[in-house]
Design a protein that fits this description.
The complex is a heterodimer of chains A (788) and B (233).
Chain A (H helix, E strand, L loop, with lengths): L2 H6 L2 H24 L3 H18 L21 H22 L3 H4 L2 H18 L10 H18 L3 H6 L1 H28 L13 H11 L4 H11 L3 H31 L4 H33 L9 H18 L4 H19 L2 H32 L6 H26 L9 H9 L5 H8 L9 H30 L11 H21 L4 H20 L9 H19 L16 H4 L8 H6 L5 H29 L4 H31 L8 H10 L28 H14 L54
Chain B lengths: L2 H12 L13 H4 L10 H14 L3 H14 L6 E2 L11 E2 L1 H9 L10 H19 L6 E2 L1 H12 L6 H20 L12 E2 H7 L5 H4 L24
Antiparallel strand pairs in B: 1-2, 3-4
């Protein structure tokens, strides 16, 4: 949220907001609390009714006045409560960002827990029973999946894969170390003081190890919540975050292993071996299930060109089913969800429309945000509610051991990992990784699942876990930001990726693969290259609809960039120059190489253009470009349901291109008139031409009655540039050299642009006019072809 | 990269940047013969030592790379340039050039200071720059840049020309806007100089990205060439 909102808030507004929030809180709390009591009163009512029936067996039509207005809460109780909770969470989130300096000091997660405590306290004060909100089913099936899907779908694949070895080491070995270290030492501590028997003595080794495994896992929700605000560099972020995602497999296996056998009382070596195998099955199986669903989703999205509206639904439903299927087999649901999102993303984004892409993005962000808020609030409520069993020794020892284990684990592992890494992890990095090991609601929910009969000390576990969570979230969460600043840890680069960087990244990939080939060394560039080739050759053809399967990444990136610039330009109010951070007056003409002077005799044949003639030509050109546009606009209104905003951005784009093109044009005007077979134009001129004709050139040139706005920008991949060009190369041969090979009713004015190659028809597709895609123009009626 | 074609291309451009390390004319008996059955001779040792100093490789790595070189050159002394001869290109590469090019792909040492990393980065960027700057005039012109982008996209079929041009133009525009923000409409931006090149690729951290793992000086196991070949550990 931008800080300017807070600063614009005047003093009076601030004073109003806080009481309003409190009132809302109070209002929402009462029904939530009252939820548990109506059962009792309703029960009484029904009893009364039956009694009445007995007294009046012929109870027909005792005349009651017709109820004009009645109140029946029970009817809508459950959905109402859920909505109220969600509303509360959202309003809280709003409130925090309106209060001026609070978000900078205290991370959101802390505030939300406090709110939860407050709400729980209020409910209890009102004498009602606190609803068991952090129910494990609710948590694992409703609250957790959106957050994980959001993380998995937008996972930055490149840094993740580059650091996969490190991440796996931390996730698997680190979590194992934590679990055994904490569990073992806790057991040792519990066993001391033999002369002073206490509850702790009843804890056997397996229960301790179970507790250790529950509490050792770094929690993705907490990590996301805290790290989001501190903006550290990409490497550290992906390390901690990746670890929190991948340690789920370890946690699942350990949890089930120890839970199963804690009843029995001992674990044999065979069980240990089976546990290892189980770990591999859980992890790889989860990934496999996710990948299968991801491919299914990608394949389905290939056929959605006619029903764009439900595209986001496929993404969400397939992912959720991946999660549930994995949970069905006791595989790692989180890893399955991550795999599904990561696998389906490149293909789905190539197939779906731009608007669906935006929808998916914002829905995921919205759901994950609400989920996260709710989780923290519920943590607070559950704290107030739970039956606590406080034990000083246990709690303090656990907290200390968690910290110590984490630090030792990270330092030890980094020492080993650095031997294999090129970019070594410095001690600052290690500190942040260790400090970022936050625990969260997953630990709580796992402990909640334990059965009281098997684990008499379950409540003690819950209390301890809550204390650890509070400690990590409050203390570590609040202090990590100042520490990051203090240690001058590298922050996230704010600069956008430039096209030069993209070109050179790809170039480097190729170069390094080539060098590896030369050396005969099968390094990971080699395998990456092989994977890419396989992807391009087989997979993309299968999963991506139409011609987009052939488009290379560089072009997709370029199109995306252009679109972004165009949108920026419109939002900034237009103007010819691009409003970049460093306003520059450099334009295309500065970099175009000067056209070589035509050979002397030809030049002498034609007189030089005088200044006035130049101006005349300029005026004519400008006028006709505009006229063309106007003529087409009227045509557009009948066939396309264009809205005024869409015209706007078209205008700006066109103006920009026109200006650029005209300037170059004027310079080159000599050449055009003297050299009949001019070299192909610079792209700007093509764009200008295209800009003035926003009509689409559908696949079949014979369709001349319906002009359609064609090109779109789904996202990374762009539409049919390849094949259309090919088509046009053939089509354009036969057409006249009038310059514009317009399919729609021909425009005599277009003759102006003669002398230019009609190979320009080929480049029409490069025009980034914004609209929704469709290899078929029939799409136009159902979605509006412009900005989301 | 298309194996045959651009491998030659790499040599061609990369070697322009090598300081001329004229390898001493080593007797034929040394370079020919069966792999792995040669004895270390004093002149060969001295040659290796000289190379090690120039390129920064260790002696074993040089030995391994020499094996690979011999595989590539079919046991001859030089690798012939497969490309059509362009002006100013080396037709043949000998071991010295081979090693010089390879030395550009070493990762930075862990304990290097800021200056050393900058120097390493500069060296690698220089290598890349020379690859792009085919006529060796110190600037990458628009035409050369277009060629680079075209080659990059050449595998993707028929898009090639126009899209590559558009992309190259946009990239050039970006470099110009970043480095020379205020240019009058009449001025002409000749090309990307090395300083601009450095500037624009600042964010990529070339010193850690442009490397091949096995060329790491610190690792003790260097496996180069065919797996399981007779390379000495």
């Amino acid at each position: 949220m931008s800080p300017c909102i807070g600063s614009r808030c005047s003093g009076t507004q601030r004073r109003i907001i806080v009481p309003v929030l409190l009132v809302l809180l109070a209002v929402s709390v009462l029904p939530l609390g009252a939820s548990s009591s109506p059962h009792v009163s309703n029960g009484d009512e029904s009893v009364v009714h039956t009694v009445d029936d007995h007294h009046h067996p012929h109870r027909n039509f005792t005349k009651k006045p017709f109820p004009v207005l009645s109140f029946e809460y029970k009817h809508i109780q459950t959905p109402f409560e859920i909505s109220l909770w969600v509303l509360l969470a959202s309003v809280m989130k709003l409130g925090f960002h309106l209060i001026p300096r609070l978000p900078g000091i205290v991370p959101e997660s802390c505030l939300l827990i406090l709110v939860g405590l407050l709400v729980g306290g209020l409910i209890k004060l009102a004498g009602q029973k606190v609803p068991p909100v952090l129910d494990s089913n609710l948590f694992f099936f409703c609250l957790l999946p959106p957050i994980i899907l959001d993380a998995g779908y937008f996972l930055p694949i490149r840094p993740f894969m580059e650091n996969l070895g490190t991440i796996l080491m931390f996730a698997v070995v680190g979590t194992l170390w934590n679990a055994f270290f904490i569990g073992g030492l806790l057991y040792a501590v519990c066993q001391i003081q033999p002369n002073n028997p206490s509850d702790l003595h009843s804890l056997d080794i397996l229960a301790c190890l179970l507790f250790g495994s529950i509490i050792s896992a770094v929690d993705p929700v907490a990590v996301l919540a805290v790290f989001e605000e501190i903006h550290i560099n990409e490497l550290l972020h992906i390390l901690v975050f990746g670890e929190s995602l991948l340690n789920d497999a370890v946690t699942v296996v350990l949890y089930h292993l120890f839970e199963e056998y804690s009843g029995v009382g001992k674990v044999t070596v065979l069980d240990g071996v089976l546990g290892v195998i189980s770990f591999l099955v859980v992890a790889l199986g989860g990934v496999l299930v996710g990948a299968i669903y991801g491919i299914l989703a990608a394949f389905t999205s290939r056929f959605t060109s006619h029903t764009r509206v439900i595209e986001p639904l496929f993404v969400f439903v397939y992912s959720y089913m991946a999660y549930l299927s994995a949970e069905m087999f006791h595989l790692s649901g989180i890893m399955s969800l991550i795999a599904c999102g990561a696998v389906m993303r490149p293909y789905v984004e190539a197939n779906i429309s731009h608007k669906s892409h935006t929808t998916i993005k914002y829905f995921l962000k919205m759901w994950s945000s609400v989920s996260e808020t709710l989780i923290f609030i519920f943590l607070g409520v559950a704290t107030v509610d739970g039956k606590h069993h406080w034990n000083w020794t246990f709690v303090t020892v656990t907290v200390i051991l968690c910290l110590v284990a984490r630090v030792i684990g990270v330092v030890g592992l980094t020492y080993i990992i650095n031997k294999f890494r090129i970019v070594k992890l410095t001690s600052k990095d290690q500190f942040i990784v260790a400090y970022g090991g936050l625990r969260g609601a997953i630990a709580f929910s796992l402990a909640f699942l334990l059965k009281k009969e098997q684990f008499p000390l379950r409540n003690m576990f819950l209390t301890t876990i809550i204390i650890v969570i509070f400690f990590t979230v409050f203390v570590q969460g609040m202090t990590i930001k100042p520490l990051v600043d203090l240690l001058a840890v590298k922050k996230k680069q704010e600069a956008k990726r430039s096209i030069n960087e993209e070109i050179h990244t790809q170039f480097l990939d190729h170069l390094l693969t080539g060098i590896e080939d030369i050396c005969g060394h099968y390094g990971h560039h080699h395998w990456k290259d092989k994977l890419n080739r396989f992807n391009k050759k087989y997979v993309k053809k299968c999963l991506i609809a139409g011609e987009r399967s052939k488009e290379p990444q560089l072009i997709a990136f370029y199109h995306k960039l252009e679109m972004k610039h165009a949108i920026e330009q419109v939002e900034s109010g237009g103007g010819v120059n691009m409003p970049s951070a460093m306003p520059s007056t450099v334009s295309m003409q500065n970099i175009q190489p000067k056209k070589p002077q035509p050979p002397k005799p030809q030049e002498r044949a034609l007189p030089q253009l005088s200044k006035s003639r130049e101006d005349e030509i300029r005026k004519i050109l400008r006028g006709n470009l505009q006229k063309t546009r106007q003529r087409l606009r009227s045509y557009n209104r009948h066939t396309l349901l264009a809205d005024p905003y869409e015209e706007n951005i078209g205008e700006f784009l066109i103006k920009k291109q026109k200006m650029m093109a005209l300037d170059t044009k004027i310079k080159d005007i000599n050449n055009y008139l003297t050299v009949p077979a001019a070299p192909p134009d610079s792209p700007t001129i093509c764009r200008a031409r295209l800009a003035s004709d926003p009509q689409a050139y559908s696949m079949k040139p014979s369709l001349d009655s319906v002009p359609t706005i064609h090109v779109d920008l789904a996202s990374p991949q762009s539409p049919d540039s390849v094949n259309i060009l090919n088509e046009f190369q053939q089509a354009a041969e036969g057409e006249d050299s009038g310059g514009l090979t317009m399919i729609a009713p021909a425009n005599p004015k277009e003759r102006h642009k003669d002398g230019e190659m009609d190979a320009g028809g080929n480049r029409e597709k490069l025009m980034r006019c914004l609209s929704d895609p469709g290899p078929h123009f029939e799409d136009e009626d159902e979605d509006e072809p412009f900005l989301p | 990269m298309r194996e045959g074609r651009t491998k030659g291309g790499t040599w061609r451009r990369g070697c322009v940047s090598c300081p001329s390390i004229r390898a001493p004319k080593v007797p034929l008996a040394f370079s020919g013969g069966a792999m792995g059955s040669w004895q270390a001779r004093p002149e060969q040792q001295h040659y290796y030592h000289q190379l090690a100093q120039k390129t920064g490789f260790s002696a074993e790595q040089i030995k391994n790379l020499h094996h690979r070189f011999r595989e590539l050159s079919a046991n001859g002394e030089t690798i012939r340039n497969q490309q059509e001869g362009e002006s100013g290109r080396l037709e043949e590469l000998d071991l010295g050039h081979f090693l010089m090019v390879m030395s550009h792909f070493r990762p930075p040492r862990h304990k290097s200071g800021e200056d050393e990393r900058c120097a390493v980065r500069r060296q690698k960027l220089r290598f890349l720059f020379n690859m792009h700057d085919t006529d060796n005039d110190g600037t990458i012109t628009l035409v050369e840049y277009r060629k680079v982008v075209e080659e990059l996209l050449s595998k993707s079929g028929a898009i090639g020309h126009e899209a590559a041009k558009a992309i190259a133009d946009a990239a050039m525009l970006e470099v110009a806007s970043t480095n020379v923000p205020h240019m009058a409409p009449d001025e002409f931006y000749e090309g990307i100089t090395f300083e601009h090149f450095e500037q624009i690729l600042n964010g990529l951290e070339m010193e850690s990205r442009m490397h091949i793992r096995f060329l790491d000086v610190d690792t003790s196991t260097v496996r180069c060439g065919k797996a399981g070949s007779t390379s000495t550990p």
